[in-house]
Write a structure and sequence with these properties.
Elements (H helix, E strand, L loop, with lengths): L8 H13 L11 H10 L5 H14 L3 H6 L2 H8 L6 H16 L6 H5 L6 H11 L9 H11 L8 H14 L5 H15 L17 H5 L15 E11 L3 E6 L10 E6 L9 E12 L3 E11 L11 E4 L10 H10 L1
Parallel strand pairs: 1-5
Antiparallel strand pairs: 1-3, 2-3, 2-6, 4-5
Amino acid sequence: MTQNTEIHPFTSALLRWYDEHGRDLPWRHTTDPYQIWLSEVILQQTRIQQGQAYWERFVRRWPSVDALAAATEDEVLREWQGLGYYSRARNLHHAAQEIVKKGKFPDTLEDVKSLKGVGDYTAAAIGSIAFGWDVAVVDGNVYRVLSRYFGIDTPINTTEGKKLFTELAQSLLPVGEASRFNQAMMDFGAIQCSPKTPLCMLCPLQDSCAALREGLVESLPVKNKALKVKQRRMSYFYVRCNGFTAIHRRGGGDIWQGLWEPYLEENLSMPKEGRLTLLRQNVRHVLTHRIILADFYLWETEKRPALPEGYIWVEETELQGFAVPRLIEILMESLS
């Protein structure tokens, strides 16, 4: 990768802004690649206010990559519960075990990228912050800031757009200042040049921003239309039988892989024995590419019903030891 040794006026103004307004975050006080990697994975699709508490709990419980690798997948999923996008947790755990097998944290950009669940952005963040590599990060904040400042209308979710913005970000990165520059871009996009209410009139770049000059702030960046969101109906039956309940672990190839849930019927078939109580109806749960409408039932019975293969019976008091999706947490809350 190449970049100019001369600092672009955009970069100079950005770094001055960061020195005054940059966020004080705990993972910015370390160069430990494990802690930085953990922060980047947690903060994918997660607001900092929520993600910081999870990061702190993970670091307390598993202070090193070796400790995380030694945990079970169930323990990791349980600690992750509430963050969503559970493939992140499974990939994190798998990658920790990969690192331990290799004997050290990867020390080249390509080796970092080879870790399960690590893409270009995460690898660049780890490399620049932990190791000082001169590689620019490109995420939603970077797309937004650069498309507005330079007036670029190439769709950011196309091959052409990704290549264009990656090269532009790299050309603006000052040699030896990758960590500071990348974190400045993240913070500037989150605080100053935010998606819906950018602080344009207080922006140090307002005099040279193409989007502000041409009235394009609200229309940039450009993104091609996403796939249509599908709707899915699900009916959950919390079976209560003499202090026990039935749950099963979701398999691969669908949402919530590896998490636990009560008895599920997607083509509603009402039980014929025991007492059935409707707890909540049409609970709306939004995922990335689908909307789930769920009904919750309490099924009380003195005799354990015959359930499909894969269900196990556990004491209700032990349920908190099983990682469940947020939708099932809502069901549990409906029981009290």
